[in-house]
């Protein structure tokens, strides 16, 4: 047979597979109708195991490949059935009720920022909100507490840095409080070494900053031969070294914070990577989805079975969603089990997207929709 002839043969087999696939899905729809009447759950682990074990044996050498194909078909079959049974309705209602005007048009919102005045989060808040009424929180947890108590409507915090990675504490707090991400901005971050007047690079013995900033500037700090010391935030470190007025102690912070607290800048752009950049998010008790929302964040856990993460992710690939981040965090109450955080580009109002999310919300042991929001990229140089 020539290549063309073999391909014709493949086309003809595909036609038959397609019509069998449609028949199988139609049968799944009939199963769903019975389940609707009898109140049985969509997922039947025993039946799926039986199908897979039969397929594995019947396909001989191709057993494991055939199992992948059939497992995928059963995933599709369950997703159709959930749709018929109205699965994931709470998520649909949440998304339907979340439509709102752009946050940038909101005036005078109460916004809790991480750090002190002059922090990078302060700069991010200024990008995201117009004439916000700002308050400052020394710890990440204080931002969440301010929102929980109603002292603030929104909070602005960093979630991820291009050099030092995720701010894991923020991810853990997001799960604990079940808040939503309503906006995001990516900003270039330019750190400086600042100290009280009279200090010079030669007098500095200790460098104070947030662990993330210390990591981002690790090469500079070690070349200086100074001891890195963790502090609550970059801006608090700048304020504190100014108050101590000790020429052996410096902070890593923004130029803006250095200026605000009367420090001198001993060295500029001290981060390991010149194009260092951080993502900040605005969080809220209430979900808002504005028309320009282009990023979706989720957190879920998966069953402790072979291939379960692969199978969840395969659905995103099949629908052509571009995943921009995946991060796992330990589930603190269970040993060596994980929450997975996923960011992808999309709008939850679209049918395909909502269909997938509703299905996942029904089937995964834990599923939380963290938000659908616009992400801006700031051209500003991380000032403030
Ligand atoms: C079709 C059913 O529903 C689900 C899908 C299955 C399938 O597509 O083969 C098998 C078991 C269930 O998890 C069923 O219960 O038979």
TrEMBL record:
This is Bifunctional chorismate mutase/prephenate dehydratase. GO terms for molecular function: chorismate mutase activity; prephenate dehydratase activity. Pathway: Metabolic intermediate biosynthesis; prephenate biosynthesis; prephenate from chorismate: step 1/1; Amino-acid biosynthesis; L-phenylalanine biosynthesis; phenylpyruvate from prephenate: step 1/1. GO terms for cellular component: cytoplasm. It is found in: Cytoplasm. Its EC number is 4.2.1.51. One of its GO terms (biological process) is L-phenylalanine biosynthetic process. Residues 297-375 form the ACT domain. Residues 1-85 form the Chorismate mutase domain. Catalyzes the Claisen rearrangement of chorismate to prephenate and the decarboxylation/dehydration of prephenate to phenylpyruvate. Keywords: Amino-acid biosynthesis, Aromatic amino acid biosynthesis, Cytoplasm, Isomerase, Lyase, Multifunctional enzyme, Phenylalanine biosynthesis. It is an enzyme of class 4 (lyase). The lineage of its organism: Bacteria, Bacillati, Bacillota, Clostridia, Eubacteriales. Residues 110-285 form the Prephenate dehydratase domain. InterPro entries: ACT-like_dom_sf, ACT_dom, Chor_mutase/pphenate_deHydtase, Chorismate_II_sf, CM_dom_sf, CM_II_prokaryot, Preph_deHydtase, Preph_deHydtase_CS. It catalyses: prephenate + H(+) = 3-phenylpyruvate + CO2 + H2O; chorismate = prephenate. The keyword Isomerase applies. The keyword Nucleus does not apply. The record marks 278 as: Essential for prephenate dehydratase activity. Pfam families: CM_2 (PF01817), PDT (PF00800).
């Amino acid at each position: 047979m020539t290549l063309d002839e073999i391909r014709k043969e493949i086309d003809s087999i595909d036609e038959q597979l397609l019509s069998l696939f449609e028949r199988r899905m139609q049968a799944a729809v009939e199963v769903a109708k019975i389940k609707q009447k009898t109140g049985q759950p969509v997922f039947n682990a025993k039946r799926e195991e039986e199908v897979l074990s039969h397929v594995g044996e019947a396909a001989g050498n191709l057993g494991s490949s055939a199992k992948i194909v059939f497992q995928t078909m059963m995933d599709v079959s369950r997703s159709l059935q959930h749709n018929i049974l109205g699965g994931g309705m709470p998520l649909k209602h949440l998304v339907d009720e979340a439509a709102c005007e752009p946050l940038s048009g909101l005036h005078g919102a109460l916004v809790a920022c991480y750090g002190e005045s002059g922090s990078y989060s302060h700069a991010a808040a200024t990008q995201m909100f117009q004439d916000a009424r700002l308050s400052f929180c020394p710890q990440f947890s204080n931002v969440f507490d301010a929102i929980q108590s109603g002292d603030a409507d929104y909070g602005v915090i960093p979630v991820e840095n291009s050099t030092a990675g995720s701010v894991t504490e923020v991810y853990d707090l997001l799960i604990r409080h079940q808040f939503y991400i309503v906006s995001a901005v990516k900003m270039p971050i330019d750190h400086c070494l600042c100290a009280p007047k009279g200090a010079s690079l030669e007098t500095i013995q200790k460098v104070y900053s947030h662990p993330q900033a210390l990591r981002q500037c690790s090469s500079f700090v070690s070349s200086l031969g100074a001891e890195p010391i963790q502090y609550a935030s970059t801006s608090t470190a700048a304020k504190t070294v100014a108050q101590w007025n000790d020429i052996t102690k410096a902070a890593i912070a923004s130029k803006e914070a250095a200026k605000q607290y009367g420090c001198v800048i001993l060295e500029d752009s001290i981060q390991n990577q010149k194009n260092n950049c951080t993502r900040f998010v605005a969080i809220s008790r209430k979900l808002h989805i504005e028309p320009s929302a282009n990023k979706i964040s989720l957190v879920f856990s998966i069953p402790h079975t072979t291939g379960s993460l692969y199978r969840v992710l395969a659905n995103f690939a099949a629908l052509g969603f571009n995943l921009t981040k995946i991060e796992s965090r330990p589930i603190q109450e269970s040993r060596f089990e994980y929450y997975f955080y996923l960011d992808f580009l999309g709008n939850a109002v679209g049918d395909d997207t909502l269909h997938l999310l509703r299905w996942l919300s029904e089937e995964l042991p834990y599923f939380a929709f963290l938000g659908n929001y616009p992400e801006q990229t700031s051209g500003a140089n991380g000032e403030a």
